[in-house]
Amino acid sequence: MERTALPRRLAWQLGRVVELIDDSNAAGGVLGQIFTFEMTTAEVICANCDAVGPIGATVVYATAMGTIMRCPGCGEALIRIAHGPQRYWVDFSGTRLMQLAATE
């Protein structure tokens, strides 16, 4: 299965316009607006399939409502980010664990 097949089918079924951002660091833009440190190199574990990898390797979808970062292994949502006036909502429920490099 192509790694983006499931999310594209899901977007079509929901009848929403979704933009697949085909850039290995696409997550960096929205994460850079929220976090003051480099997030694309942070490693995450998928809560669905236990795949491990950097956030920069996720499949990123941008919609008018926000951004979804999906597991490249199983297609499940790892991180969901919605934005509104002067605030962000960040959902890490698809991520079992996140490992961040210490800055010293």
Protein architecture, described:
It is built from 2 helices and 8 strands. It has one domain (5-99). It is an alpha+beta fold and 104 residues long. It has helices at 5-14, 27-34; strands spanning 19-21, 43-46, 52-54, 59-62, 66-70, 77-84, 87-91, 95-99. The radius of gyration is 13 Å and the shape is globular. The N and C termini lie far apart (42 Å). The strands form 2 sheets. The chain has a 5-stranded antiparallel sheet with strand order 1-4-5-6-7, covered by helices on one side. It has a 3-stranded antiparallel sheet with strand order 3-2-8, with no helix packed on it.
In short:
The chain is built from 2 helices and 8 strands, in the order H-E-H-E-E-E-E-E-E-E. With 104 residues, it is of the alpha+beta class.
From the spread of the alpha carbons, the general shape counts as: globular
Q: What's the main sheet like?
A: 5 strands, antiparallel
Termini, distance in Å? 42 Å
Share of residues in strands: 35-45%
Provide the spatial order of strands within the biggest beta sheet: 1-4-5-6-7
Oligomer: single chain
What class do helices, strands and sheet pairing give? alpha+beta
Could you say how many structural domains there are in total? 1
The helix/strand order is HEHEEEEEEE
User: What proportion of the residues is helical, as a percent range?
Assistant: 10-25%
Residue stretches low in confidence (pLDDT < 50, at least 5 long) are: 1-18
Features:
104 residues, alpha+beta, 5-stranded antiparallel β-sheet, 3-stranded antiparallel β-sheet, 17% helix, globular, disordered N terminus
